[in-house]
C-alpha cells in the first residue's frame, strides 16, 4: 500500500497547528473554555458547555503529546474546570452547561457529556496533569452507576439533575462517543472491560440496527431500544438529535468499528461483520450524502427514502468523511477510498477552511455560503483537528493510543 504524498502531509501538519492556534481563543481566565465566535473570540452570550471543555482538553493534550508545544497548562486548565465548575458535588456527575457565573445552565445530565469527560480525562492522564486521574476515576464511576445498561449493552441517554429519573429516550449519538471514549480508555489502561463494551456497542449499532435498516443507521430509540423513525420530524436540524439518518455519523461509525477491531484478538469475538458493516454504512454516506443536490459537500441528514432533509454542509461531517475514507484505505489498501479521501479534502480546502479568520466554517449552504441554521460561530476545532492528525500518527485504535509514549 502506498503513502500519502509529502505535500499533503505537510498541509495536514500546518492546518493542525493553525487550528490549535485558533483554539487558544477559547481560554477563559475565570475558568474553563468558552464558546468561540467566527473570529475565534469567546461569545459571552453563550454558556460554557461541558463537551466543549472536554474537546479542548483533547486537542491541547494531543498537541502536547505530538510535540507541537508544551500545552500541559491548558490541559490542566480544562481538567480543573471539569473537576470544579462542571462537577455537581451535590448530586453527582457533570453539568451539561454552566452560565458565565458558573451556575448550572441546564437541568439534565447527558451521557454525551459524561463520555466526553472520560475521553478528555484519559488524554489528560497520559499527559500527566494534576487532577486527571481523579477526573478519570470519577467519570468512570458515574458512567458505571448511571449510564451503562448491561441488559442492552448500551448507554442510557439522560437523567434529571438529581439522578432520580432517567429519560425514556435512547440515542445512538451518545453511544457513538461512548465507543470513542472507551476505546481510548482501553488503549491507555489495557483494561479489557473498556474494549469489550466498546465492541459490544458497535456490534449492536452496526450489525443489528444498521443492518436491520438497509444500513441506514437509526439515531433514535425508546427505552427498550425500539427504533423511533419519526423522532424530531418537526425539528429536523437539531444539532444533536436530528430527524432521519445523519450522514456524518455513518462515516464516524465506519471509522470507529474498524478502529476498535484493531484491539480484538482472533478468538475474542465474532468480527465477521466489521469490515462488511464499515463498507456498507460508508457507501450510504457517500452515495446518498455527497453532492446529492447537485452541489459539492455532504448534506446533514436524509430521510428513510434517502432523500435529503437538511442540506446544510456541516464541517464535522466533512472531517468524519475524510477520516473514514483514510481508515478504510489503511485497512483494505483499496484506491477507491484514497480517491474519496483526496476528493473530499479538496472540497474542505476550497470551501470549508476559513482563510480569513482561521478554523473551519461550521455550516455552509448548498451554495457554499456561511449559514447558521444549526450552528453559529466556531465553537471548537475538535473534528477538524482530528481529521488533520489521523494520517500523521501511527495507525491505532484511538488518538491517545497513537500518541502514547
Helix count from the secondary structure assignment = 13
Q: Estimate nothing, just give the exact number of structural domains.
A: 1
Binned strand content: 5-15%
Which regions contain 5 or more consecutive residues with pLDDT less than 50?
none
Which assembly state applies to the chains in this document?
single chain
Please describe the biggest sheet, giving its number of strands, its sense, and whether it closes into a barrel.
2 strands, antiparallel
Judged by helices, strands and strand pairing, the structural class is mainly alpha
Element string (H = helix, E = strand): HEHHEEHHEEEEHHEEHHEEHHEHH
The second-level CATH architecture is Alpha/alpha barrel
Gyration radius, rounded: 19 Å
Arrangement of strands in the largest sheet: 1-2
Any overview of this molecule?
This protein has 405 residues and is mostly helical. The chain has one domain (6-403): Glycosyltransferase (Alpha/alpha barrel), CATH 1.50.10. Helices cover 49% and strands 6% of the residues. The chain has 13 helices and twelve strands. The strands form six sheets. Strands 1-2 form a two-stranded antiparallel sheet. It has a two-stranded antiparallel ribbon with strand order 3-6. A hairpin with a 4-residue loop joins β4 (148-149) and β5 (154-155). α4 packs parallel to α6 (172-189) and α8 packs parallel to α10 (315-332).
Tell me briefly what this model is.
The chain is mostly helical and 405 residues long. The protein is built from 13 helices and twelve strands.
Amino acid at each position: 500500500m502506498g503513502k500519502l504524498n509529502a505535500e499533503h502531509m505537510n498541509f495536514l501538519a500546518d492546518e493542525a497547528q493553525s487550528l490549535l492556534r485558533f483554539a487558544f481563543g477559547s481560554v477563559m481566565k475565570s475558568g474553563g473554555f468558552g464558546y468561540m465566535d467566527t473570529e475565534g473570540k469567546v461569545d459571552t452570550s453563550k454558556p460554557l458547555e461541558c463537551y466543549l471543555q472536554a474537546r479542548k482538553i483533547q486537542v491541547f493534550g494531543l498537541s502536547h503529546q505530538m510535540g507541537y508545544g508544551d500545552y500541559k497548562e491548558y490541559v490542566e486548565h480544562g481538567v480543573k474546570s471539569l473537576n470544579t465548575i462542571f462537577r455537581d458535588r451535590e448530586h453527582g456527575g457533570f453539568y451539561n452547561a454552566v452560565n458565565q457565573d458558573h451556575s448550572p445552565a441546564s437541568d439534565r445530565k447527558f451521557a454525551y457529556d459524561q463520555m466526553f469527560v472520560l475521553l478528555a480525562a484519559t488524554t489528560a492522564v497520559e499527559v500527566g496533569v494534576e487532577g486527571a486521574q481523579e477526573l478519570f476515576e470519577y467519570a468512570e464511576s458515574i458512567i458505571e452507576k448511571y449510564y451503562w445498561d448491561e441488559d442492552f449493552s448500551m448507554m442510557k441517554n439522560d437523567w434529571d439533575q438529581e439522578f432520580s429519573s432517567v429519560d425514556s429516550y435512547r440515542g445512538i449519538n451518545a453511544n457513538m462517543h461512548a465507543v470513542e471514549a472507551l476505546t481510548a480508555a482501553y488503549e491507555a489502561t489495557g483494561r479489557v472491560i473498556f474494549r469489550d463494551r466498546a465492541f459490544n456497542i458497535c456490534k449492536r449499532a452496526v450489525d443489528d440496527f444498521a443492518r436491520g435498516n438497509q444500513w441506514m443507521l437509526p439515531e433514535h430509540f425508546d427505552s427498550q431500544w425500539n427504533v423511533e423513525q419519526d423522532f424530531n420530524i418537526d425539528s429536523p436540524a437539531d444539532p444533536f438529535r436530528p430527524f432521519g439518518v445523519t450522514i456524518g455519523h455513518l462515516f464516524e461509525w465506519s471509522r470507529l468499528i474498524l478502529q476498535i477491531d484493531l484491539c480484538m484478538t482472533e478468538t475474542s469475538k465474532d468480527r465477521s461483520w466489521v469490515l462488511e458493516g464499515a463498507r456498507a454504512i460508508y457507501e450510504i454516506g457517500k452515495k446518498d450524502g455527497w453532492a446529492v443536490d447537485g452541489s459539492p459537500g455532504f448534506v446533514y441528514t436524509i430521510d428513510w427514502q434517502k432523500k435529503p432533509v437538511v442540506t446544510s454542509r456541516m464541517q464535522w461531517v466533512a472531517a468524519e468523511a475524510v477520516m473514514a475514507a483514510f481508515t478504510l484505505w489503511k485497512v483494505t489498501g483499496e484506491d477507491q477510498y484514497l480517491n474519496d479521501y483526496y476528493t473530499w479534502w479538496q472540497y474542505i480546502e476550497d470551501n470549508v477552511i476559513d482563510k480569513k479568520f482561521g478554523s473551519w466554517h461550521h455550516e455552509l449552504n448548498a451554495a457554499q455560503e456561511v449559514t447558521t441554521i444549526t450552528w453559529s460561530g466556531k465553537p471548537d476545532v475538535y473534528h477538524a483537528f482530528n481529521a488533520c492528525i489521523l494520517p500523521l500518527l501511527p495507525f491505532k485504535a484511538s488518538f491517545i493510543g497513537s500518541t502514547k509514549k
